[in-house]
Design brief:
The protein is mainly alpha-helical. It has helices spanning about 1-15, 20-25, 30-55, 70-80, 80-115, 115-130, 140-145, 150-175, 180-185, 190-225, 235-245, 245-279. α1 packs antiparallel against α9 and α5 crosses α8. InterPro entries: MetI-like, MetI-like_sf. This is ABC transporter permease.
Length: about 280
């Protein structure tokens, strides 16, 4: 059963993959021109930052403490201090836990909605309602119910990440090639075998896309969530720099958050592209 279904599935995939010429003529996303265009955009952003903080403000303005020169100097000093890496590690751990919990909840719910129309009709209005509520709106409730510490942070990150995973998983189920399911049925596959051999492999790309979207949302929500009485993390570190009025360090942390978020998105984007090319 398993070898035949796998072989048939591959054939169905090859049948709908399109002409080879379309794949061969596609330009790589990471071409030199695209990289140069991205660097030009970053340079323009840096110039705007420099003008807004080092040129246009008055000499005694507070904005000058956020200038690129001071921020980069503070960044160099912070990189030499292991404290920064400790806060980064704590934040990344929270992101990982939130994503794992969101996947454990979101993928089964997405499968349920995609496979069972009655479940979709019953659950979709509630999910759409909850999805439109900002995760940060739950912060006071999370603290009152779960207390301070990591627990409310995990809850808020999971709540933020679960919706794109649910929606993309259910969309992937609906877009499965019917030929795959017919092939499994003709081979007398059970529902469990069809789920594991056909449905789940066929929706991995959609789950990865949902995970990438979830990472973007979680990374934005993370910093305010880490202001809920925790003693470590990038959000806590930003509050600490504000309280110490170390504004150049605060701006350096903003740069660190942007770089880490970019790297996380880049890694997931490459993973999605590799999966699409492979399958």
């Amino acid at each position: 059963m398993s070898s035949e279904v796998t072989h048939g599935t591959s054939g169905a995939q090859l049948a709908v993959s399109g002409p080879p010429s379309a794949v061969q003529t596609a330009k790589p996303a990471g071409s030199l021109s695209a990289v140069l265009a991205g660097l030009v955009g970053l340079a323009g952003l840096f110039v705007l930052w420099w003008l807004a903080t080092a040129v246009l403000p008055a000499p005694d303005s507070l904005a000058r403490q956020f200038s690129p020169v001071q921020a980069l100097q503070s960044l160099v000093q912070m990189v030499r201090d292991p404290e920064l890496f400790w806060h980064v590690a704590v934040s990344l751990k929270r992101v990982l836990v939130g994503l794992v919990l969101a996947l454990l909840i979101g993928v089964p719910l997405g499968l349920l909605i995609g496979l069972w129309r009655k479940a979709e009709a019953t659950l979709s209005p509630s999910f759409q309602f909850l999805r439109m509520i900002s995760p940060l709106s739950w912060m006071p409730i999370a603290v009152m119910v779960l207390g301070v510490g990591d627990a409310p942070v995990y809850f808020l990150l999971t709540f933020a990440a679960v919706w794109p995973i649910v929606l993309n998983t259910s969309a992937g189920v609906r877009q499965l090639d019917p030929a795959w399911l017919q092939l499994a049925s003709s081979l007398a596959a059970t529902r469990w075998e069809t789920l594991w051999r056909v449905t789940l492999p066929g929706i991995v790309g959609h789950v990865l896309t949902g995970t990438r979207l979830a990472v973007g949302i979680v990374w934005i929500v993370l910093v305010p969530c880490e202001m809920l009485g925790v003693s470590a993390g990038l959000g806590y570190f930003i509050l600490d720099t504000r309280d110490r009025m170390a504004y150049s360090e605060l701006m350096a942390l903003v740069i660190v958050i942007g770089i880490l978020g970019f790297l996380l998105d880049y890694a997931l984007r490459k993973l999605c592209q590799r999966w699409a090319v492979r399958y």
